[in-house]
Amino acid sequence: MIYAGAPSPRIQTLSVTGGAWGGNTASNLTTTSTSRKLSAGSGVAYNVFTGTLTGDNLVFTVNGGAAGMDTAAAFVNGFQLQIITPDPVIKIQPGAKMVLAGQTASFTVTPAGTAPFHYQWQAGPVNSGSFTNLVDGGNIAGATGKTLTIANVTSNQALDYVVIVKNDLGAVTSAPARLTADSATRLVNVAIGGGARQTGAAVLGAAGDFWNQAVTANTFPIVDTGSNTLGGVGLALANAGQLYVSPAGPPMDPNTTNLMQGYAYGYTGGTANVTVSLNNLTEYINSPFALVVHAVGNASGQGAMLHLTGATGGNSTKTLTTSASSRQISAGCGVAYQIFMGALTNGTLTLTATENAGQQFTALNGFQLLLAPAIPPIITTQPVSQTNDNVSFSVETVSVKPVSYQWQAGAVGSGTFTNLLDGGQVLGATDNILKLSNTDSNWALAYRVVATNDGGSVTSSVATLNVLPGSLIPIMNANFDLDALSGPAAPTNQTVTPTGWTGTGTVGLLNPDFFYLSPTPGVSPPNTLFTFSPDGVANPSVSQMLTTTLNSNTTYTLSVQVGNRSRGTWGGYHIALETTNGTVVGDWVGENNNLAAPGTFATSARSFTTGPNPPGLGQPLEIVLEQAVPTKNSYSDFDSVSLTAAPAPPHTQGTPIDVYVCAGQSNAHGWQANPASLSLTNLHYVNTPDARALFAYQANLITQKNFYSQGSVGQLSTEGAGYAGNFSGFGPELSAGSDLAVRFGKPLALVKFASGGADLHTQFLKSANLLYPRLISEVTNSLQQLIDHGYAPTVKGFFWLQGESDAMVNPSTYAADIAQFISDVRTDLNARTLQFILTEINSNLPAFALSQGGVAQVNQAMVNLQKTDPNVTFVTTADITNGFADTIHYSADQIITIGQRWASAFTYINQPAIMHSLMTRLPASKVSGH
Question: How far apart are CA 817 and CA 820, in angstroms?
Answer without folding.
Answer: 5
